[in-house]
Design goal:
Layout: E1 2-3, E2 6-19, H1 20-24, H2 29-32, E3 43-54, E4 59-62, H3 72-77, H4 86-92, E5 102-104, H5 110-113, E6 117-119, E7 125-127, E8 133-137, H6 138-145, H7 161-165, E9 169-172, E10 176-179, E11 182-186, E12 195-201, E13 204-208, H8 231-248, E14 251-253, E15 260-265, E16 271-276, H9 277-284
Parallel strand pairs: 4-5, 5-8, 8-9, 13-14
Antiparallel strand pairs: 1-2, 2-3, 3-4, 6-7, 10-11, 11-12, 12-13, 14-15, 15-16
Length: about 280
Amino acid sequence: MQLGDFTLRWFSDGIYKLDGGAMFGVVPKVVWTRKYPVDEDNFIPLALNAVLIETPQAKILIDTGYGTKLTPKQVAMFRLERPPTLLESLAAGGVHPEDIDFVVYSHMHHDHASGATQRDASGAVRPTFPRAKHVMQRLEWEEAKNPNIRSAHAYWEENWAVLEADGLLMPVDGDVELVEGVRLIPTGGHTRGHQAVLVSSQGQTAMHMGDLLPTHAHINPLWVMAYDDYPMDSIAAKEKWIGRAKAEGWWLTLYHDPEILAGIWNTEGKMIQAIRADDALAAEG
């Protein structure tokens, strides 16, 4: 997608499945299933759609999927379906790991951060993007290192230890302009240090809201995950930023949606433009 002087490209790390009830929290199943498919086990399909922002200054990858370190047991548990992996998708698009200047985490849960490291032929964990600075809110980094009893299962040291050792981590504090036209905005909600990425060029704007807006069905501010650590903060952030996006005609990108990569919604909550995964694949083909 061309956004002013910038280009946004999506790269898949595959599809996995989670319990639908967990993804929609207190929303009754009879309601959310009208908007999102569910199987006989109550699982819903979720994508791992990394976004690459290409600006005149830098190549910035938002989130990294599960990567290639998962054990067979973990692959089965998450019902992960491949190909492609993120690295396969990037290669098919002519992007090499060394091309990436920044990896930005919306947050550091395993489904967003695992792909930042990989095992080499000897089995040692290495950075996947060896030149990139890996950027997160400092609050998120502190929780990744010192998770609480609720969040401990979501932060895996193997996803960041080698990055820290190699000097590739770049914690930031608050609202920061990473490069011209790309802002990192703390939102909280899903995690204490969750952040959104606001991208603006030549009067056009897109926002990546991470797990505050995982799919198109979560456009209602009150539809938040049971996984959110601070749901009232999620609701407040969604009201603020989705409201502004609707009013100003911004694109909103969707990390976990297997069908829709980005959309524009009007003030009545109707999607009026969309970039669909099938259309993008057809265009590449």
